[in-house]
Amino acid sequence: MDFGRKAILCFLLHLVKRSVCSVKNIIGCRHFSALEATCRRNYWFPHSTPYRAREASRRLLCSVATESSPKQVKESEMDVPKEIFLKDYKSPAYYFDTVDLKFLLGEEKTIVASKITVFPSAEGTSSPLVLDGEDLKLISIKVDGKELKEGDYHLDSRHLTLPSPPQGKFTLEIDTEIQPQKNTSLEGLYKSSGNFCTQCEAEGFRKITFYQDRPDIMAKYTCRIEADKLLYPVLLSNGNLIEQGDLEGGKHYAVWEDPFKKPSYLFALVAGQLESRDDVFVTRSGRKVSLRIWTPAQDVPKTAHAMYSLKAAMKWDEDVFGLEYDLDLFNVVAVPDFNMGAMENKSLNIFNSKLVLASPETASDADYAAILGVIGHEYFHNWTGNRVTCRDWFQLSLKEGLTVFRDQEFSSDLGSRTVKRIADVSKLRNYQFPQDAGPMAHPVRPHSYIKMDNFYTGKFLLYF
Ligand SMILES: [Zn+2]
């Protein structure tokens, strides 16, 4: 019984964290129709600062609807985002088995080569294969090694469509050009303070390469990164490092392999001038896991508590939930320009520095407690979210609700359960209860959304 009540509160707290404050009750919001029209026209802007995120939260009040709007804004289909309904979910006509990515990171442009093994979900399907893609320059596309000509595919500002792909299993190779240094949306691959960094949840991977960018497409990834060795001495991606070496022209490379299938939103890449605090965790079955927390050199001394928190989280998940870490390496990156607060990419968690760094001279007890909680939260996603993931974004609250519950229990076990409970309930009362008492009240799982990012805007309330 206690668990049930806690679970409900967890879901509500999750809503505070992720602030699904953009869901509209169509009746309560009917008088906002003029505002809605503005929202629908203007919502494509970067969320590069907490201020912008808060601004986005205000401007997007009505952008996720529980019913279709009676007033449609007349704009070209290309510019008006499509409302996604839970009831319209269809399983994909094609699945991906393996995805081999190759990144040539450059100062002017980055070339992304992807090689995907595609297979139809049902034998003899004649459905087109529709790939998502935004802000990409297509260089070439090959099916089973044969380059396609312009008439063989259709390209628009958001999709690359193969109208009649081969029946049965085939290989799809796509080369694209992107410009991370000009990517101010901070979704996909972007460059900031000299480092390359990714953010793919919820729909950032489509800004890296053409892909079925949806959580029910699970594939095994390898990732080869090539870059200038002096400028980018550290090259990181998901999984285990299986190869690295030098190349001509002052370049070097690293090849990463993730043996577990994952959705594209968990893909990550980091390249830059970083240094690490290293440690080792021995799992309950006796495997040695290398732990590395990467930061700019001057911040490494401030990562001691984050490393303590990570090891405590790994041990606690074994003791309480029986969940052991499943790879040989776990990387954490903390950089000052990461806009999402924290992200649970498989084996390569990325954080904003504010959530990881602490020094005894300046950090308070609350700072230490917050680091413990957020390091734990992202680590716990390794099972609740990453290995067991969402079918679609309507299930976001399942991975987040359960993982928030786990991080609350972790913080309660390692600190004071009473103090933690008071803090959590205080957040509910201050942020969630007013929303639930007003016209913005909505179910945990909405019936539709326009842009998935809307679900995350309020995260800044907690993290910044
Ligand atoms: Zn989470």
UniProtKB/TrEMBL annotation:
Residues 1-22 form the signal peptide. InterPro entries: Aminopeptidase_N-like_N (IPR045357), Aminopeptidase_N-like_N_sf (IPR042097), Peptidase_M1 (IPR001930), Peptidase_M1_dom (IPR014782), Peptidase_M1_pepN (IPR012779), Peptidase_M4/M1_CTD_sf (IPR027268). Residues 109-266 form the Aminopeptidase N-like N-terminal domain. It comes from the Eukaryota. Pfam families: Peptidase_M1, Peptidase_M1_N. Its cofactor is Zn(2+). Residues 307-456 form the Peptidase M1 membrane alanine aminopeptidase domain. Keywords: Hydrolase, Metal-binding, Metalloprotease, Protease, Signal, Zinc. Belongs to the peptidase M1 family. This is Peptidase M1 family protein. It comes from Hibiscus sabdariffa (roselle). The lineage of its organism: Eukaryota, Viridiplantae, Streptophyta, Embryophyta, Tracheophyta.
